[in-house]
């Protein structure tokens, strides 16, 4: 296989770099052997351990080659990224500041509209209650005036007639006042126009900015947070086990066999 030719192995296209195809070929051979290996005695165990050494050496060689191939390009990419990051740093800060201002204004407008709507609704309820009371007073005054008129008609003597006539006039005056009060309330009523919620999307100069609300959170009392929302800190658990812990409530700590390979 030529070192300079581009090859495709199992769908993977290898770049035109000397030696990579050979590394892959060796790796395929080792994998084919590993799929068939069976350890039945000390001799086959020794063969397997020796093969682990071959695998470790091959990995080291491949890693060394990888670093030699990527060191210069990675350094260049890192330099470019850092340079561009420095160039656009003011833009990133400016964008954050403007977005914060836009969001703050939109939120202030939303709250202003909500407060105004609540004020209008409260005023509507107050006027409706005032009109209800005025209508009730009007109906009561009309019934009182009708009762006085009937009493006047039923008067037995002339003095009683004049007395009841005066009471009837007063009741009719109060009924008229109550009716005027209802008319005055109706006259002051105006069509209600609810303030509009500000558009979440604002367009200007060919640019659109959309303010979206999303739910978030902050921890106030960690002890009150349900366990379903807590995550086990596995790194601290492993640190404790490595330090000698062998019993942790809610956990089963047990030994697990791992094969460590060292080769010259």
Structure report:
The protein is mostly helical and 264 residues long. The protein is 64% helix and 5% strand. It has four helices and four strands; from the N terminus they run E-E-H-H-H-E-E-H. The strands form two sheets. A two-stranded antiparallel ribbon has the order 1-2. Helix 2 runs antiparallel to helix 3. The N terminus is likely disordered.
Outline type: elongated
Low-confidence stretches: 1-6
Beta-strand share of residues: 5-15%
Query: How many structural domains are formed by the residues?
Result: 1
- What is the CA–CA distance across the termini? 29 Å
Order of helices and strands: EEHHHEEH
> Could you describe the largest sheet, including whether it forms a barrel?
2 strands, antiparallel
Rounded mean pLDDT is: 82
Strands of the largest sheet, in order across it?
A: 1-2
Annotation field: number of helices: 4
Structural class per helix/strand content?
mainly alpha
Number of strands: 4
Q: Helix content range of the residues, please?
A: 55-70%
- Output the radius of gyration: 45 Å
């Amino acid at each position: 296989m030529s070192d300079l030719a581009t090859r495709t192995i199992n769908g993977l296209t290898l770049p035109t770099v000397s030696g990579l195809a050979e590394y892959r070929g060796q790796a395929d051979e080792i994998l084919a052997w590993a799929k068939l290996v069976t350890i039945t005695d000390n001799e086959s165990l020794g063969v397997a351990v020796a093969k682990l050494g071959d695998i470790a050496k091959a990995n080291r060689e491949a890693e060394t080659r990888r670093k030699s191939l990527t060191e210069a390009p990675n350094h260049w990419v890192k330099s470019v990224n850092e340079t561009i990051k420095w160039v656009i740093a003011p833009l990133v800060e400016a964008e954050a500041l403007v977005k914060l201002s836009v969001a703050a204004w939109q939120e202030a407008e939303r709250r202003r509209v909500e407060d105004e709507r609540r004020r209008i609704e409260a005023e509507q309820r107050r006027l409706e209650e005032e009109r209800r009371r005025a209508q009730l007073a009007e109906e009561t005054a009309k019934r009182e005036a009708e009762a006085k008129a009937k009493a006047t008609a039923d008067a037995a003597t002339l003095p009683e007639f004049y007395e009841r006539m005066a009471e009837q006039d007063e009741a009719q005056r109060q009924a008229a006042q109550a009716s005027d009060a209802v008319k005055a309330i109706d006259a002051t009523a105006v069509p209600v126009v609810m303030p509009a919620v500000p558009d979440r999307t604002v367009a200007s100069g060919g640019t659109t900015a959309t303010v979206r609300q999303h739910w978030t959170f902050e921890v106030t009392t960690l002890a009150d947070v349900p366990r379903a929302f807590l995550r086990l800190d596995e790194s601290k658990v492993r640190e404790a086990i490595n330090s000698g812990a062998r019993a942790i409530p809610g956990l089963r700590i047990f030994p697990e066999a791992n094969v460590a390979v060292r080769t010259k």
